[in-house]
Amino acid sequence: MARKETSENPGRLKQIALTYKMTKKVDPQVGLVVAAVGIVTFGVLLAIGFLIGHPVYLGILGFLLAFLGMAILFGRRAERAAFGQMEGQPGAAAAVLENIRRGGWTTTPAVAMNRSQDVVHRAVGKAGIVLVGEGNPNRVKALLAAEKKRMARIVADVPVHDIIVGEGEGQVSLKKLHTTLLKLPRVLPGAQVTAVNDRLRALGDLMSNMPIPKGPMPGKGGMRMPKGR
């Protein structure tokens, strides 16, 4: 058991180091800011400890709180940097969808795409079906409408939500996509979610060659190519 833990630690440290390097490229001040938070937190608690006559206890508490604060701050800035690098890349929304672990979501990337590389991804969960579009808003709206019409033949009894990823009015930013899906009301039981997924798989319109940041996009079958506008 000890050998296993020892072998895992270098991997974790390497991952942290790689994350820090990636974050620093986008956020050059991350090291200074995180360190400053740790030092200030520890210093304040230690000073309070001397004032009340318990420097050891408050020093230990300050160290723990400083470490926790540094970890939380670094995690948030690393996440912001990762989203900053992903924005504008083809398949960025699919990468976010595939990282949703809560709620039993099943993601199918690139169920529809046009010649301009506007794309629609599909996620199925207890909230129903969510179609997520990336690209030019006007063309994506046409893709979403076409996909809804195509699905209506076999999933007419299932709620369908559509989202366009972007920073414009009525759109959802990439960094808020994860939260937006998790906030949707859950209306389907698990058995129905499985049934919906089975029916949708019968459509067979998956695309396996769509580039996604940070890893390949799973998928089998062909790709449906509606006419671009």
Structure overview:
This protein is of the alpha+beta class and 229 residues long. The chain has seven helices and four strands, in the order H-H-H-H-E-E-E-H-E-H-H. It has helices spanning 2-26, 30-52, 55-86, 92-98, 137-151, 174-183, 190-201; strands at residues 106-113, 119-125, 128-134, 160-164. It has a four-stranded mixed sheet, sandwiched between helices. A hairpin with a 5-residue loop joins strand 1 and strand 2 (119-125). Helix 1 (2-26) crosses helix 3, helix 2 (30-52) runs antiparallel to helix 3 (55-86) and helix 4 crosses helix 6. The relative contact order is 0.13.
Secondary structure layout plus pairing:
Elements: H1 2-26, H2 30-52, H3 55-86, H4 92-98, E1 106-113, E2 119-125, E3 128-134, H5 137-151, E4 160-164, H6 174-183, H7 190-201
Parallel strand pairs: 3-4
Antiparallel strand pairs: 1-2, 2-3
Helix pairs in contact: 1-3, 2-3, 4-6
How big is the Rg?
23 Å
Q: Helix tally? A: 7
Overall geometry comes to: elongated
Averaging pLDDT over every residue, what do you get? 79
Distance from N terminus to C terminus (CA atoms, Å) equals 60 Å
Backbone structural class: alpha+beta
Which H/E pattern describes the elements?
HHHHEEEHEHH
Strand content: 5-15%
Q: How many strand elements?
A: 4
- Biggest sheet, spatial arrangement of strands: 1-2-3-4
- Please bin the fraction of helical residues: 40-55%
Main sheet summary: 4 strands, mixed
Keywords:
229 residues; alpha+beta; four-stranded mixed beta sheet
Short structural description:
By secondary structure, the chain is of the alpha+beta class. The protein contains seven helices and four strands, in the order H-H-H-H-E-E-E-H-E-H-H.
